């Protein structure tokens, strides 16, 4: 076994190479730039060194985190970036990370619901291509991420990365292969026939884990009472893989401790000679957000207790009386019954956001302590936003800015801080990150997204996308920097001028904007629906409102 550490300064003269060999020990120090050592190493060791040069990845995406819920937007130099107000939220760790990163302001979640986004992220493919076309995965539904797809983390595993997944999954088809206590039995026959959660299931070892070897999965929307499953018994009270454990602790805290343990690597959690990827998917700030019991009480008590709704719901498109509702976009009446109005939800939601921030700080410190921070790409984003009373609505899956646009912060070696207006789509994330990690040649041919890594590195793009596609079950739309245009399946449209009307308070008629602009919107929507192989394009639906490309 040979392990090698090297530190080279671009304009310095010192480097250090350490070789630990099973048959002898050799330490070589003080080599100069002019007399650089070039030891002849076995082929397998050279391959390992090559892999080691690849950057690590820490990809963090809390669920239902809207773009506006970062304290950064209320700070000097950032308070005019978004055209609208940011939420009054306390997020010091993310604010500091943003100041060291590329902060993207126009990234979108093309299908702003949990399962469709996650399937697009993992596959780089559109919903009609990846198996999760419309709705969230749920018991008695057939959709789930196709097993024959080579996913993002499959590629990393195949490229020699140690791979870890921590948190919520929600891309897998739900099957009744659990006993009544929530333990995996692998069959719908007795004692199987149950599910631990109707929306998300434990995934056993195998293809479903998509190349992730170190596995810690949280299931359920009760943030202080989630079920957890793991490949590592010591993380789940000694239980074997497939038997659930309830830690009776705020889920984000539990997951952060798992990641810190992985980074410390005191018990061989990972190979220190290999790069690693960590995908961390906390469930908060996803609802429930009805009461203090739903969040981390200490955070609520310190930052948000007693603050009136008028101080927390600051966006101009929240109704004066702060009333709000949930439309049955997902066909699930339970979502309506269990979702509070915004004035009740907002202090709990913001407590969720701050609680996540605290644990992100812990993980980033552990990354630094492990000596890996300078060789790690860090992404902080989400799967979709949250309306929180804007447009008199709650939750997600709307094309309004609060639901559709998402935070996306990227810190990477040798990339300097800037604000960037690239309109990145969900399908673009996989190819762009793989390329940034030096794996452009490993991007599967089936990936539909675009690799924007060259522009991400420099800020200079050969061509930026002029628009982004919006999808849901009954609406299709397109967003440019200026306009949001939505066609409803019944033939109505919504149209907003995002520059003149950034809170989207006034829906326009097509005749209200220049004809060339409306023609462009129709063409862009037709182009994207065709690219996505959406069934509207196959049916040439609403051709008077959508200009599909000629066959």
Task: Report a brief summary of the structure.
25% of the residues lie in helices and 14% in strands. By secondary structure, the chain is an alpha/beta fold. Strands 7-6-5-8-3-9-10-4-11 form a 9-stranded mixed sheet, sandwiched between helices. A 4-stranded antiparallel sheet has the order 12-13-14-15, with helices on one face.
Number of DSSP strands? 15
Major sheet size, sense and barrel closure: 9 strands, mixed
Please report which band the strand proportion falls in: under 5%, 5-15%, 15-25%, 25-35%, 35-45% or over 45%.
5-15%
- Rg for CA atoms: 24 Å
Structural class: alpha/beta
Helix segment count? 15
Low-confidence segments: 1-51, 328-337
Order of helices and strands: EEHEHEHHHEEEHEHHHHEHEEHHEEEEHH
Tell me what you see in this structure.
The protein has 551 residues and is α/β, with parallel strands linked by helices. The protein contains 15 helices and 15 strands. The strands form 3 sheets. A 9-stranded mixed β-sheet has the order 7-6-5-8-3-9-10-4-11, sandwiched between helices. A 4-stranded antiparallel β-sheet has the order 12-13-14-15, with helices on one face.
């Amino acid at each position: 076994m040979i392990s090698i550490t090297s530190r080279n300064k671009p304009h310095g003269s010192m480097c250090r190479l350490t070789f630990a060999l099973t048959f002898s020990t050799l330490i070589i120090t003080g080599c100069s730039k002019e007399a650089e050592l070039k030891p002849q190493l076995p082929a397998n060791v050279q391959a390992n060194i090559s892999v080691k040069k690849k950057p690590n990845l820490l990809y963090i995406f809390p669920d239902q985190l809207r773009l506006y819920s970062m304290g950064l937007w209320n700070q000097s130099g950032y308070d005019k970036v978004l055209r609208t107000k940011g939420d009054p939220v306390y997020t010091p760790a993310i604010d500091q990370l943003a100041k060291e990163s590329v902060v993207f302001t126009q990234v979108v979640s093309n299908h702003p619901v949990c399962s469709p986004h996650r399937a697009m992220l993992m596959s780089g493919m559109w919903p009609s291509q990846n198996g999760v076309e419309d709705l969230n995965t749920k018991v008695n539904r057939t959709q789930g991420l196709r097993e024959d797809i080579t996913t993002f983390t499959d590629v990393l595993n195949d490229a020699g990365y140690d791979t870890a997944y921590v948190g919520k999954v929600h891309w897998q088809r739900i099957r009744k292969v659990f006993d009544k206590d929530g333990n995996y039995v692998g069959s719908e026959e007795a004692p199987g026939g149950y599910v631990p959660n109707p929306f998300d299931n434990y995934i056993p070892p195998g293809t479903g884990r998509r190349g992730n070897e170190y596995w810690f999965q949280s299931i359920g929307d009760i943030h202080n009472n989630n079920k957890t499953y793991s490949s590592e018994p010591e993380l789940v009270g000694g239980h074997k893989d497939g038997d659930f454990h309830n830690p009776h602790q705020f889920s984000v805290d539990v997951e952060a401790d798992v990641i810190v343990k992985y980074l410390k690597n005191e018990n061989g959690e990972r190979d220190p000679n290999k790069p690693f990827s960590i995908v961390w998917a906390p469930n908060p700030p996803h609802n429930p957000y009805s009461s203090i019991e739903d969040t981390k009480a200490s955070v609520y008590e310190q930052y948000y207790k007693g603050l009136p709704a008028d101080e927390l719901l600051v966006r101009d498109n929240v109704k004066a009386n702060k009333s709000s509702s949930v439309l049955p976009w997902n066909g699930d009446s339970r979502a309506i019954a269990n979702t509070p109005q915004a004035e009740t939800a907002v202090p709990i939601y913001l407590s969720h956001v701050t609680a996540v921030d605290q644990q992100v700080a812990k993980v980033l410190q552990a990354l630094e302590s492990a000596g890996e921070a300078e060789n790690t790409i860090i992404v902080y984003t989400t799967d979709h936003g949250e309306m929180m009373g804007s447009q008199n609505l709650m939750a997600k899956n709307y094309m309004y800015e609060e639901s559709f646009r998402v935070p996306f912060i990227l810190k990477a070696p040798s990339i300097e801080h800037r604000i960037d207006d690239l309109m990145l789509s969900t399908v673009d994330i996989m190819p762009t990150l793989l390329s940034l990690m030096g794996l452009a040649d490993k991007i599967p041919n089936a990936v539909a997204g675009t690799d924007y890594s060259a522009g991400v590195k420099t800020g200079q793009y050969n061509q930026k996308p002029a628009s982004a596609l919006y999808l849901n079950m009954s609406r299709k739309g397109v967003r440019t920097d200026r306009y949001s245009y939505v066609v409803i399946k019944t033939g109505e449209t919504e149209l907003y001028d995002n520059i003149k009307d950034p809170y989207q308070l006034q829906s326009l008629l097509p005749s209200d904007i220049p004809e060339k602009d409306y023609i462009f919107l129709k063409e862009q929507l037709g182009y994207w629906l065709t690219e996505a192989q959406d069934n509207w394009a196959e049916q040439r639906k609403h051709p008077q409102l959508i200009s599909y490309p000629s066959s």
